[in-house]
Amino acid sequence: MKKLLTDWGFTRQGWSNNSRGEYLVFLQLVLLAAFTILPVYQLPGFKIQSTQLIYLTWFLASILSSIGLTFIIKGLIDLGKNLTPIFFDIKSRREETWLSDKYPDYSEYRQRVKKLIPGIY
Prior knowledge:
- This protein is mostly helical.
- The protein is 65% helix and 0% strand.
C-alpha cells in the first residue's frame, strides 16, 4: 500500500505542505463516504413501513455502491502517477498558477480559452 501511495506521488512532505492537493483528496474520500451512507439514511419523521422495501433499498444501495467503488478503484489504478484532486475549479486554479510559472505565454492563452467548459466557463 505504501508503494502504491508513493507511486501516486503522496509523500510525508506532501501531506505536511499539501504540495499536490493531498488535503483535497482526503476531503473527497470523506465526501465519498458520506454519499455512500446518504442513500440509506432515513429522515426523521419519514419511515418506510415495509420491511421488504427496506431490504430492497439496502440491496440496491449495496449494489450501486459496489459498482461505484469498482469504478473508483479502477480510476485510481488507471491514473497512477497522474492522480490529482478532482475538485475541478480549485484544482484548475492551482494548475493555472503552476502553468503560468512554467510557461510565460500561458497568461495570454488563458484569456482566450475557457477554464473548464469550452465556450462557457
